From TrEMBL:
Entry keyword annotation includes Transmembrane: yes
Residue stretches spanning the membrane: 27-45, 66-86, 98-121, 133-153, 180-199
Key words, A-Z: Membrane, Transmembrane, Transmembrane helix
Protein name: Uncharacterized protein
Pfam families according to UniProt: Sulf_transp (PF04143)
Source organism: Sulfurovum riftiae
Lineage: Bacteria, Pseudomonadati, Campylobacterota, Epsilonproteobacteria, Campylobacterales
Length: 219
């Protein structure tokens, strides 16, 4: 049986095919490089233990600061590195338009969901690989939610996005000083990561690995 892939059109099958084609032709590098980056990313996630419920839920309750320290450090360092890689022609990015209404609604739903599940899209797959069924159920729900969003985008969700303010980046507000702005921003965010006090929320598995004199639940 001959299978024909339709890459034009607005039906669901065409949109799915177009999604994969867009990713394939964006020049992300070889599969081996992407695989290697994935291994490194997963290793960092497990080393910092931010795939645990206590880390993200603890951050939401201001009882754990590992996640914000990691995020601020990553944003600070990569903002500098990525900007100069783009300037050198070694990388590229796609700036998305600012849709305030959609950002507020989506950000609120996203934040509430992270607090309830104690996971984010980056740490979720790592938890699934560890065999956590609750996260797998959440991932299935996320896929179904994405399907609903795709199917009903034009009729239901697009009007909720609000008016577009265009594609803006921070350096554009300081013409002629783009390099300096990126450096100041990156260094400032990195310093924030360093200055945030380290506070951790442990689960029983973590506590069992600590000596009795270092267990916060026995102080």
């Amino acid at each position: 049986m001959e299978v024909k892939i339709i890459t034009q059109g607005d039906d669901l099958a065409s949109r799915i095919v177009q999604m994969f084609e867009n990713v394939i032709h964006q020049g992300h590098g070889s599969l081996a490089l992407v695989f290697l980056i994935g291994i490194i990313f997963g290793g960092i996630i497990q080393y910092t233990r931010v795939d645990k419920f206590e880390k993200i839920a603890g951050f939401s309750m201001l009882k754990d600061t590992i996640v914000p320290k990691m995020l601020f450090l990553a944003v600070g360092l990569t903002s500098i590195a990525l900007y100069f890689m783009i300037e050198a022609g070694w990388a590229h990015y796609h700036v998305k338009p600012i849709l305030w209404q959609g950002l507020v609604i989506g950000g609120t739903i996203f934040g509430i969901s992270m607090a309830i599940m104690g996971k984010c899209p980056g740490t979720g797959p790592v938890s699934i690989a560890e065999g956590r069924i609750d996260v797998l159920i959440g991932a299935i729900g996320g896929l179904l939610g994405g399907l609903v969003f795709t199917v009903y985008y034009d009729d239901l969700f697009k009007p909720l996005m609000g008016e577009s303010l265009g594609k803006l980046t921070l350096p554009e507000f300081f013409p002629g000083n783009e390099h300096l702005v990126v450096l100041i921003f990156g260094v400032a965010v990195t310093l924030v990561a360093i200055l945030i006090p380290k506070v951790e929320m442990f689960d029983e598995a973590d506590l069992s690995k600590l000596p009795d004199d270092q267990r916060p639940d026995r102080e």
